[in-house]
Amino acid sequence: MATAELAGKHLVLGMTGGIACYKIAELTRLLTKAGATVQVVMTEAATQFITPVTMQALSGRPVYTSQWDARVPNNMAHIDLSREADAIVIAPASTDFLAKLAHGMADDLLSTLCVARDCPLLVVPAMNRQMWQNPATQRNVTQLRADGIEVLGPDSGPQACGETGDGRMLEAVATFEAIASFFSPKILSGRRVLLTAGPTFEPLDPVRGITNRSSGKMGFALARAAQQAGAEVHLVAGPVALETPWGVFREDVQTAQQMHDAVMRSVADADIFIGVAAVADWRVDHASEQKIKKTAERALPTFTFVENPDILASVAKLPHPPFTVGFAAESGDLELHGEEKRVRKNVPLLIGNLGPLTFGMDDNEVILFEAAGATKLPRADKQTLARALIVEIARRLPDTSLIR
């Protein structure tokens, strides 16, 4: 399925030598699935790790490896290949190739077309931890950033050499998201977004608890869309099985009280607060410290409930709150209950949906409630809807919301 950021984009995907070349097969698949055309250019070293035939099959285009390729009528592949490109992405970018770029060297097809380009250049480093930490490499990376080249990563973790540390290439999905983010309009540039997502879990005993069916998909989609729009995003997540969006700082919590405390610790630094999480309204007054046993002699257990803190209302009542956006999941009468909740919580914008029909689903349909009236957005997949909601939120930001 095409995505708005990458649909119709033409990318030159340059591959240098390294075991991380195997990740580029999946990256190419993701890019083409998103609607981008991918022109692969490989160094001779890259062909030792994955074949041009494989990359041609995945990209659907002939692969270039030589500056003297006769398929280019004027024998100027280093000029022609980049002229139609929206960007050049070097992945994996080896230590050697980063050094070439930093010093303007042009001794093969890939390095020459990078020097001769008139489009943006993104590099995705991949190397041993000691190679990454080497002072020369760090100087080169600093120079690349100063030259306006986007450096994506690296990650930290186990490496092919058996060591662990910085230098590992971003995984294919993270690289894909970083490229998509690069092309997204930065309508929230300079803004700080604090966002909650997912359910909460209120324990009854060490093994049981009360929760709900929220998957967190809408909240995570909004966190991703806000980051891609240029915001610094702090995501407070309840217990969900979702990958953290690229570039987003994630803080995991379990209970409503923990989520409330995490939000209140960070809200003073936020320009925008988006409360997407399905927060439990009540918790057990005194959860059992031991598993509650079922026996023939024991009567059914009884529980006393107390009210959890209202996170959305707590943020809205601050002396100088961020622009506050709430979510309401209703089982019926959405138009009535959505506006009533917006007024009761005293928030400028509330986004309502029929929760039981959308929990766990990949698409959604919402209504925006504000003082000026209600606006329905068409049903769409949650990531498309998230991008639309970020546009709607950005339109409503007061001019002073950047300054806190």
Automatic annotation (TrEMBL):
Pathway: Cofactor biosynthesis; coenzyme A biosynthesis; CoA from (R)-pantothenate: step 2/5; Cofactor biosynthesis; coenzyme A biosynthesis; CoA from (R)-pantothenate: step 3/5. The active site is at 161 (proton donor). Residues 188-395 form the DNA/pantothenate metabolism flavoprotein C-terminal domain. CTP binds at residues 281, 291, 309-312, 327, 341, 345. HAMAP family: CoaBC (MF_02225). NCBIfam families: coaBC_dfp. This is Coenzyme A biosynthesis bifunctional protein CoaBC. The lineage of its organism: Bacteria, Pseudomonadati, Pseudomonadota, Betaproteobacteria, Burkholderiales. The gene is coaBC.
